Amino acid sequence: MMQKAIQMNEGGTRVEMVVATIRQRIAGRNLTPGARLPSVRGLAATLKLSTSTVVDAYERLVAEGAILARPGSGFYVANQAAPFALAEAGPKLDRAVDPFWISRQSLEAGEADLKPGCGWLPPSWLPGDGMRRGLRTLARADGPALADYGSPLGLPQLRQLISRRMGERGIEASPGQIMLADSGTQAIDLLCRFLLEPGDTVLVDDPCYFNFHALLRAHRAKIVSVPYTASGPDIELFAQVVADERPRLYITNSAIHNPTGATLSPVTAHRVLKLADQFDLTIIEDDIFADFEYTPAPRLAAFDGLERVIHIGSFSKTLSASARCGFVVAKPEWIDGLTDLKIATSFGGGRLTAELVLNVLSDGNYRKHMETLRHRLSRAMSEVSAKLKNLGITPWLEPKAGMFLWCRLPDGIDAADVARAALEKRIVLAPGNAFSLSQSATNFMRFNVSQTLDPRGFEVLRDILAE
């Protein structure tokens, strides 16, 4: 493992590469405080380096306080951890396949830039008129709605509405089992704070939403992955990883998987839950794309009754990314602990946003908007899929719903190289290895069909692939 990491860090001296690799392994919690490092001779033999190179690297790490030298015993990771650097916690990848690269380029792109790699709808596809009506209603609200802290659990009327919506997907949850959050991302962050200790193992899909990787590294978790198939995780490998690694959590999408667009099958869902029960595994089910479905797919939380599964959702994808509002659905005893944690980290809830979301969702026009949006996405999916196929870019599957196409580029084409070239033309793409912990998606790319309709994007892709 150490040798593989060294080989990945090209450039610089051998000493610098050894130093960088050990720093990375400490930051990623693969080497924890107090852990003994390999002996100088042992590491030199493993890496096929001179002992003087390893000695110099260890001396540098001792000088900066990252490790300790104990005469007659060896070298150990220092108990006084250095300030956490999130960028150091992941593999040293080219910036074109770094999740932060995709997020920053997408968020900072100008209005004229194209963003086929981003994860949200164009503003013109969102219910702007409904948001304006909600804002006008909110402007006439009484003082507490505009000025007071919200309750830690969140606006009761919105939690009641979410409870009814959960029932439509087969998930029985009272309003008391629902806690509002500022977003789906904050919901997962709170759950990681609540359930994880640094160094705990967390299982994710491969590929999966790239911000899962970043968030888990921020919590200093050890991340392992299992390949994802058209019907859910590869169940045989899932069973093997769960038995070998004993992860504390499994984080996944079940309805519309990001980035593949796949849907979890009932058979796979039942087998996942049996393994979770056998190995004491807690599951976080991220369901932020629920409203894009025509027919509700199987939910782990529905099969499980919220015993081992925690369900989260958000309205950022269907209403507005500016009005951030998400939620957690869990068993009552966990909601109680999460509420205390929310008070400690953000105090009261965001009442103003919750009131706005409630107004828009209660408007009869929201369901009409979503029906129109689903049809619009379906047409875009067909159109974009056909145009990509003409370029030799092949969808991994044809999703039943949603906005994402997970595509294979022509043989021999590196998606990172395509992304860098496209960025020079002010087009932001999402290369596959950003989603893959195993780095096995070199020639894959995720396309957001709602953001891939502009002819300029296909022209640029055609030119890049022809080079």
What topology emerges from the helices and strands here?
Blueprint: H1 2-8, H2 14-27, H3 40-47, H4 51-63, E1 67-70, E2 74-77, H5 86-89, H6 99-108, H7 128-139, H8 143-147, H9 156-168, E3 178-181, H10 184-195, E4 201-206, H11 210-218, E5 222-229, E6 232-233, H12 235-245, E7 249-252, H13 266-278, E8 282-286, H14 300-304, E9 309-314, E10 326-329, H15 332-346, H16 351-362, H17 365-390, E11 394-395, E12 404-408, H18 415-424, E13 430-431, E14 444-448, H19 455-466
Parallel strand pairs: 4-5, 4-7, 7-8, 8-9
Antiparallel strand pairs: 1-2, 3-10, 5-6, 9-10, 11-12, 12-14, 13-14
Low-pLDDT runs = 3-11
- Output the number of helix runs: 19
Widest sheet, order of strands:
3-10-9-8-7-4-5-6
Shape: globular
Largest sheet: 8 strands, mixed
Percentage of β-strand residues: 5-15%
**Average of the residue pLDDT scores:** 90
Helix content: 40-55%
Distance between the termini: 36 Å
Structural class comes to alpha/beta
Radius of gyration equals 24 Å
Strand element count = 14
Keywords: Aminotransferase, DNA-binding, Pyridoxal phosphate, Transcription, Transcription regulation, Transferase
GO molecular function: transaminase activity
Domain HTH gntR-type: 12-80
Family: In the C-terminal section; belongs to the class-I pyridoxal-phosphate-dependent aminotransferase family.
Walk me through what this model shows:
- The protein is 45% helix and 13% strand.
- Residues 3-11 have low confidence and may be disordered.
- By secondary structure, it is α/β, with parallel strands linked by helices.
- Strand 11 (394-395) and strand 12 form a beta hairpin.
- The strands form three sheets. It has an eight-stranded mixed β-sheet, with helices on both faces.
- The radius of gyration is 24 Å and the shape is globular.
- Helix 3 crosses helix 4, helix 7 crosses helix 16 and helix 10 (184-195) crosses helix 15 (332-346).
